[in-house]
Amino acid sequence: KLFFTDYGNAAKVERCDMDGMNRTWIVDSKIEQPTALALDLVNKYVYWVDIYLDSVEVVDYQGRKRHTIIKGRQIRHLCGLVVFESYLYTVNSDNLSILRINRYNGTDVQSLARLDNAKEIRVYQKRTQTAVRSHACEVDPHGMPGGCSHICLLSSNYKARTCRCRTGFILGSDGRSCK
């Protein structure tokens, strides 16, 4: 799945398959400007920062179990968000500090460091990389991912795929080659 935020005409948090199909709103009320978004892949939760409401909130992948982790002035100007173990890590763009927030109680907020020009934060951890023995976009014997001549996107699960073309090309009737 692909999870993303939108604060155009109607602010929301959404999800869809990697090929853009099955687009679903998971949060569309009491939300104004959702920006940073982070996933807890193990427990299947979506966290987001709302910079207008000065809040960090969470829901499960279906949009249920919503609650506010933390709200208020101490978390103004947040950009970037990541989950690691019991904490959320984010960047305060006002003073360029890295913040650590306890994601279970929201009361334990610590400034860890200052970094010039920090706008995003990432945690790389082996446990966040799902092990899949095979998937629909594996390179075929001809060197094409999923048998697609340009781009292979996973669909509703790792065994299904959709082929797409680079800009300026059109997908052929075989659903794999680009012209």
UniProtKB/TrEMBL annotation:
PROSITE patterns xref list: LDLRB
One Gene Ontology cellular component annotation held by this UniProt entry: plasma membrane
GO biological process, one term: canonical Wnt signaling pathway
Ranges occupied by LDL-receptor class B repeats: 1-43, 44-87
GO MF, one annotated term: Wnt-protein binding
Database matches in PANTHER family: EGF-LIKE DOMAIN-CONTAINING PROTEIN (PTHR46513:SF33), VITELLOGENIN RECEPTOR-LIKE PROTEIN-RELATED-RELATED (PTHR46513)
Stated name of the protein: LRP1B protein
Species for this entry: Oceanites oceanicus (Wilson's storm petrel)
Lineage: Eukaryota, Metazoa, Chordata, Craniata, Vertebrata
Originating gene: Lrp1b_1
